[in-house]
């Protein structure tokens, strides 16, 4: 978990980021990124968060591009999934559209598909 706070405009926003790692870099398997936006201990609903992947090969599932805008829900959450075709660690930036001082970064790693092992079948 990564926390970021901004108080520059008189509104105290905090942005908590989490991300998954370990998906195969096959262009289909997904990792996810989640942001939780709060202000003064209260979840903030209806605000747009832009997620941007710092890689030309990583694409967000909803947009098919390296960035996507997601609106926070009543729990302050904005989530997105992304795929990649390259084995790499992707830096994902998040920014609150209404307050560009509220930003954060987190990483998500995609692995070689040969490194993804499924459990042995049970007979």
> For the terminal residues, how far apart are their CA atoms?
39 Å
Mean pLDDT: 90
What's the helix count? 0
Q: Got a strand count?
A: 11
Please describe the biggest sheet, giving its number of strands, its sense, and whether it closes into a barrel.
6 strands, antiparallel
The percent of residues in helical segments reads under 10%
**Shape type:** elongated
Low-pLDDT windows of residues: none
- What structural class do helix, strand and pairing data support? mainly beta
Helix and strand run: EEEEEEEEEEE
Strand fraction equals over 45%
- What Rg, in angstroms, do the CA atoms define? 16 Å
What would a concise description of this structure say?
The protein is 0% helix and 54% strand. The protein contains no helices and eleven strands.
Describe the 3D structure.
- The protein is an all-beta fold.
- The chain has no helices and eleven strands.
- It has strands spanning about 1-5, 15-20, 25, 30-40, 40-45, 50-55, 60, 65-70, 75-85, 90-95, 100-110.
- Strands 1, 2, 4, 5, 7 and 9 form a six-stranded antiparallel beta sheet that branches. A five-stranded mixed beta sheet has the order 3-11-10-6-8, with no helix packed on it.
- The relative contact order is 0.28.
- The mean pLDDT is about 90.
